[in-house]
Amino acid sequence: MGKPDRYHHGDLRETLMSAALVAIARDGAAAVSLRQLARDAGVSHGAPAHHFGDRAGLFTALAVRGLDMFCAALSDAAEKAAAAGQARLPASGKAYVLFAAAHPALFEVMFRPDLLDRDDADLKAARGRAAALLRGFVAESRPVRADPESDVGLEALRAWTHAHGLATLWLAGNLPPAMAPDGLEALVDRLFGTGDNGGCDSDDGRGAA
Amino acid sequence: MGKPDRYHHGDLRETLMSAALVAIARDGAAAVSLRQLARDAGVSHGAPAHHFGDRAGLFTALAVRGLDMFCAALSDAAEKAAAAGQARLPASGKAYVLFAAAHPALFEVMFRPDLLDRDDADLKAARGRAAALLRGFVAESRPVRADPESDVGLEALRAWTHAHGLATLWLAGNLPPAMAPDGLEALVDRLFGTGDNGGCDSDDGRGAA
DNA sequence: CTCTGAACTAGACACTGACAAGATAGCAGC
DNA sequence: GCTGCTATCTTGTCAGTGTCTAGTTCAGAG
């Protein structure tokens, strides 16, 4: 909005992306309209098409960015935990959920393939990086008595589904507030055992069945 | 489609709901159009409004039905397991995921509050029934050495997020196919320990951290 | 028979995403 | 200076959508 009356906006792509994030976080992705974004940016209704092609193109660009930030957040949390002598896996699980809470719009877009351009090369690459990262944490965090390799995938999936389910339910507002009386982070610490005791959960995880 | 040229359709509400389910399962909820549903039903574009008010009304009606079927499926699975001397909780977790896979459209609508009429009384009631059911399974499945009551909520949440995350990732197609080479049910059995050994998982759940 | 209310039609409105054709700006090479 | 070139943005148009309103049809109760 520095020089409002220029023909060339100068930073339209970035402006549209951040405005879209705000709109998604407020009303959900379905309520986002390219035309409204263009109006807010002081630009004609056809301008967004040049940068993103179509609606899916915009969401795909957001998803790629989100996945990269997501990877960075998880790596960061894992390395910090490792530096403190704690396990990477629970720390990254906590980071997973907190990222979703901190960037709900990005998270929503990242995991809603119906909004995305499935064949986009950047998206596929970003997805691959994220998957490799998750799997890496699990492989490193395995105790020495490792079972066959397939089990690593299983444990990665367990951690992934656990964190993803919590993030999803939280974001959609489907968790009864009574379940998190002292906020999401405290709840995550209780669930993942990532409290100040340093990430080694004290109970047996899922209990006897 | 029995008497196609009557002024009164006779069963429009039901026709629209099942057509909507098919459309959601095929193209996602965002792609469903009231006008297209009306066309398919051989009815004018304004007719759906009479039964559902607006778009959110249709999705809300579907969500209520979905929640009821969901409760029935979980109860059924839990009771069958109990009758076989097995624990209710893992059986209901398995039923949770399999319900999502069997009724993807209902599941999607159930957990997408942006599509729904949040204040709908029927919806609130159905949600309450589902939540109570889940909590009940966990409370019953606790070992005798029960901790304070709050822990029941925590363990319910653990089970819930786990099943929900798996269902969500599976439905959205975000799971690498390699992770479920032999189908979803086999994967669930491995994750939840609900194989033919009868629901008592043999390992320690989440491993040492 | 009339009356009533539920079910449905038909028209209009504002809005959307997508497309195509043209206008503008900034920049390299001359 | 000038000329083209390309990315950027405008303008106009189209089919499609949800929602609103007023009118029409029908079934059944009195």
Describe the structure.
The structure is a homodimer of 209-residue chains. With 209 residues, chain A is mainly alpha-helical. Helices cover 64% and strands 0% of the residues of chain A. Chain A is built from nine helices and no strands. The first copy, chain A, has helices at residues 12-27, 34-40, 47-52, 55-83, 88-102, 104-110, 121-141, 149-171, 184-192. In chain A, helix 5 runs antiparallel to helix 9 and helix 7 (121-141) crosses helix 8 (149-171). The radius of gyration of chain A is 20 Å and the shape is globular. Residues 197-209 of chain A have low confidence and may be disordered. Chains A and B meet through helix 8 and helix 9 of A and helix 8 and helix 9 of B. The structure holds a DNA duplex (30 and 30 nucleotides).
